[in-house]
Amino acid sequence: MNRRQTRELWTKPVPETKYLNAENVARYRLILRLFYENHSKLRYWLKAEEVYAGVMSWGLLDDYSLEQCQRDLETLVEWKNLTSRHDGGRATTIEEYLRKRFRYQMTPYTIEIERMLENLENIQGYGGSLEPTLLERLLGYIKRVRDIPEWPEGEALQLWRDLQNSFRQLHENASDYLASLQTGRAEELMLTEQFLVFKDTLTHYLRNFVIGLQRHGGQMEAILQETDPEVWQAFLHAVVTDEARMPSLEESITVEERMDRRREEWSIFVQWFTGNGHEPSDVIFLERATKDSIAKMLKYALAIQEKYKWGISRKRELDYLGQWFLSLDDVEEAHRLGAYTFGLYRTRHFQGEGERTSDSADLSMWDEMPVIRELKSRSRVQRKAGSTEAVRDRKEQQERARQAFLAGKASEDEILRKWVAMGEFSMSQLERLTLPERKFLLLWIGRCMASRSRKIRTPDGLEIRLQEPENGQRAKLVFEDGVLDLPDFRMFLKEVTAQ
Question: Which Pfam family is one of those matched by this entry (predicted)?
Answer without folding.
Answer: DUF2397
